[in-house]
Specification:
277 residues, alpha/beta, 434 Repressor (Amino-terminal Domain), Endonuclease, Chain A, 13 helices, 6 strands, 51% helix, 13% strand
Length: 277
């Protein structure tokens, strides 16, 4: 299937579908109509109205126009439908994490598969998304790259969060996107490593003991000084707030920092890879 045909069949953003459905329900109740009565007015079955209101079915343009007319909503439903985002940039569980990330006082981030999203260049991020299976459309890739770059705004705030990264040497050596993308990504990492709010450490390959075998995770310190851990698997992520579980991963992160190259050594490795040392 071509990118074009996939795009035309793109489903609407799930959260926006539910929002528009809630508007239909609100306008219907304000008009004093039951779902069955409204269905009769617009010539559909009452299950269609119920499905739209519950966000299980996307409101279609022709039905939106009929509902605006019957409910006297001055075109509000058509306007809402026209301005719905076309794709889900993030699933709901990821949106919860991103909200915490944007407000965090501190982040402690371990990754051993790809570079953390906050450290990626646009070209590297694009290469990551190009490796998705099943393949994403061009529009999906560009929107996700833009969203990832927007998240990086926190690194350059006047008062940024304090962020510690421990990343596997494998993620630094992989050449996703090719040599040019790899070189530019290394230059980006080296520049970010000099930011006052960032500590970057690289975990070398070949260690005899490794505290990161449980996989990637991020410890978040929230604005009210609570600690929450985020971890994910394919198509699923978890926010962990249980104190025992958080402590378990915090201790692993502390051990990882002792096993990784220190920040100065990590900068030196990046300099050598760039040919600057």
């Amino acid at each position: 299937m071509s990118n074009k045909s996939r795009t035309t069949r793109q489903r609407k953003n799930a959260s926006a579908v539910k929002m528009v459905g809630s508007l239909v329900g609100t306008f219907r109740r304000a008009a004093g109509l039951t779902q069955r009565a409204l269905a009769d007015e617009v010539g559909v079955d009452d299950e269609t109205i119920a499905s739209v209101e519950q966000g299980r079915r996307t409101l279609k343009e022709d039905l939106a126009a009929l509902l605006d007319d019957v409910l006297d909503t001055k075109g509000a439903l058509c306007v809402a439908l026209a301005n719905m985002p076309e794709i889900d940039l993030f699933p709901r569980w990821a949106e919860e994490y991103i909200d915490l990330e944007q407000e965090a006082l501190a982040l402690s981030w371990y990754d051993n598969q790809v570079l953390p999203g906050l450290l990626q260049t646009p070209e590297y991020a694009r290469a990551v998304f190009l490796n998705d299976v099943p393949a994403l459309t061009e529009d999906e890739i560009e929107q996700r790259v833009a969203a990832r770059m927007e998240r990086q705004e926190i690194l350059h705030r006047r008062e940024p969060p304090t962020i510690s990264f421990v990343i596997s040497e494998v993620t630094v050596m992989d050449r996703l996107g090719g040599e040019e993308v790899h070189h530019e990504q290394l230059r980006c990492l080296r520049a970010l490593a000099d930011l006052a709010a960032i500590t970057l450490q690289i975990m070398p390959v070949g260690r005899e003991f490794h505290a990161g075998l449980v996989g990637p995770f991020t410890v978040i310190e929230t604005v009210d000084h609570q600690r929450i851990v985020y971890t994910e698997a394919p198509r699923r992520g978890w926010l962990i707030a249980d104190p025992d579980d958080v402590s378990y991963l915090e201790r692993r992160y502390a051990m990882l920092r002792t096993q990784a190259l220190n920040p100065v050594e990590s900068k030196g490795l990046l300099d050598r890879l760039l040919g600057d040392a």
